[in-house]
What does this fold into?
Amino acid sequence: VRAEYDEMRQNHQNRQEGRTLLALEAAREKGNHIDFAKSPTPPPAFVGEKVFSEFPLREIANYIDWTFFFSAWELKGRYPDIFKDPKKGKEAKKLFDDGNELLQKLISQRLLDARGILSILPANAVGDDIHVFSRDNAGKATPDFVVHTLRQQMSKDTGAYQALSDFVAPKDSGIVDHMGFFAVTCGNGVDELVKQYEADGDEYNAILVKVLADRLAEAFAELLHLKVRKEFWGYAANENLGLRELLTVKYSGIRPAPGYPACPDHSEKHTLFDFLEIERKIGISLTESGAMWPGASVCGYYFAHPQSNYFALGKIGDDQLTDYANRKGITPDVARKWLAHHL
It folds into this structure.
């Protein structure tokens, strides 16, 4: 094992040799410069906010990604193919049956409360920032809040050096664009169930209910994004994709989450949560490090432009770190703490 990992480290180092960081300004010049006059973001059918409580678990359950359900139990394999695995198939089928039995109990007895919030608001890019406005404040000089994005700097042979702000029309274009935000949870009620199972000495179902709640939260995020595309924003009203196609991102538009590859700074959640009052409205709170509680929760952004795509930020330089800290109004040392893995 030690020799194998030494080889992996060397192969990784070899791939990195010759790769350099572009200066931030050079990366910005090579950004994804969309002509929004010729290719505008489809206007949303709805602008404002919607809050969901007691959303039907039965509808959410149709969008569960069972592959990751098995991964949580360290059974690797794609659903439903994993059932045919000669070594793991029998165990996977039993786990699946147990999970579905408990899921039906959660649904029929309404043991979990699925809550969510969705907001689609006017927005414009200002450099690598996105200025967001309340529904009646579009185009004003001062935004209601700012989403700070980061730009790719690792050298590459082809392709733009992207930031999420590239997918929103620049303010100086004179076009009022839009951006979406969401948070969902299926974690309300989980703690009570876990304590009940643990009191009964049933550690298996205590773990199972937590895994199912996580899968339901991710399924809720998938379902709400589908409703955004087809109904609330409406830019893909005729979309007709199966679950496998949804889970492999065959749809138009993206929903990146703060803390993940394209926008790795977890502290950006705090601005989102404060503006949308997510804790008061649907009961999700944030720790100082940006972790959500209940744990079975998901939040993120919606971008609807047809050229928007998922990407990984990669490494950034000290020039962008300093620039980012200045834009956020924090010290470089604080920014370094949040972005340590990307420096």
